[in-house]
Amino acid sequence: MQIRPVSDLRNSFAEISRAVHGGKEPVILTKNGYGDMVVMSYDVYQNMMGEYDIAAQLNASEAESTGTRERFTHAEVMEALKERLRHV
Asked: How far apart (Å, rounded) are the C-alpha atoms in residues 30 and 4?
């Protein structure tokens, strides 16, 4: 991960763009020696948001499961998924 002054965003934009697209890691920009911004490629951002969404859904499912005693076997879940896919 690179840490660079925020002025590099203006002075070395092409280099920062290559870094975030080529290395698939964000670049941290600092202002007066402190973290100010993070620059990342759109692909990395989309992946991060997708992972965040999955984590949020898993947390919601876990919270929901604590409120019920109803449980399903693996076979029941798979059959229900197959049935839903047949109607898509």
From this structure: 6
